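Entry 14. Structure prediction run on the chain below.
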Amino acid sequence: MAPAPRVRFAPSPTGYLHIGGARTALFNYLYARRFGGTFILRIEDTDQERSTEASLQAILDGLKWLDIGWDEGPEKGGPYPPYFQTQRLDTYRQHTEQLIAAGKAYRCYCTPEEIKERRAQAEKAAGVTGVYKYEGTCRNRKDIPAGRPSVVRFKMPSNEGSVSFDDLVLGKITKEYSDLDDWVMLRADGIPLYNFGCVIDDHLMDITLVARGQEHVNSTFPQLMLYQAFGWEPPRFAHLPLILGPDREKLSKRKHKEADVMLHKANGILPEALLNFVIRLGWSHGNDEVISRQQMIEWFDFKDVGSTSGVWNPEKLLWLNQHYLKTLPPADIAGRLAPFLSEKGCPLPANDPRLERFVMAFRERAKTLEEMAAMAVPYLKSGVTLDEKAAAKHLTADSLKLVRQVRDEAAALQEWSVAALDTVIKTVSERAGVGMGKVAQPIRVAVTGNTVSPGIGETLLLMGKDEALRRLDAALARG
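Output returned:
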């Protein structure tokens, strides 16, 4: 029986939780849950200018909103602390010295200016960018230049050869040693670079599988050389397809507002819908479009992850969101609707029965919580703004006589309910010898200001007795 997997999500807190990062976290989380493993959250906070407390909190808030819970990491601890790279600098130094002593790494005193000049010369000679490889200037250097800081470089094998790995998504991938250079492991200030820090951490934390975006494929080769240098068994790797924006360019913070997970929360998207949408950007289970969290856990495996990029489809996200608005328990949605009403100046207590009534009344038309709140606001604010065109058509002298009858009989009701209000409308229309619409529509315009609303009894119930009567009185005063 295979040991339970240990998988990790290791974001850099440099802004917010990116959609691509959320998908990576989700895939690792689901794999751990399906196979009885452990999901670890590790923070790669070595970008000291951009890694702030606010950025870290944005990562944690995004994961919590999506309900992607971690088993080890910040706020929880675990057997392999600390879970922040800036708190593990001594560990990186120790492993650096170990490699230097073994002749597998060396100190490089070339200045950034020197490297920049050599790169410019190499690219000018080749006529293309990205061709420069470090020449190994300091490989066998014995002197230590006074006052000059040094980085530490990994010493690639000088013989011919190649490094390969079997990717769980992309299959076997190989790169020749000659395509790799002596890459920088540790900066002069003791901060590890990505390829070094993540290998040390993954090994010491017993990570058995690393799933990340395809942009990290080329990073895998120097990392594998590092595993080899230490004599460590590497984890398995799975590189996930890119997510493209609606413009079919890579989804990025700079170009696409959709990249921010928490922006979707602010826009009234449900986490269930966003997770369902995101998982389909790279993974599928037959033709299933609506996939519950339990189904995700039961079905997920990296063998079903595709190799082609997923394209952001805002219409599909809204379709999924409306599906969950209509199918999740109304009481559940009501609790999530309340903050949106508060933001619009219409706070309601959490136990106010109108919250659930608004959900039931508008979930067939609203695609987001923001839209649902906008539809509910006119029922909660005092007074109404009449659409003059609708008023001219429906609030005539004759129709206002019917409105008066409805107003008086509704005011006398002991129970303000849909059934009782519908009975009043029906009674007035039968007595006048007209269809119910001839009575209901003037009432609708009088209390909502326009010709569109839920059923008339439901509309009056949502308005509340006092406010509905005030609005009917205001319409009658026009005549």
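Residues 162 and 177 are 5 Å apart (CA to CA).
Filed with the rest of this week's runs.
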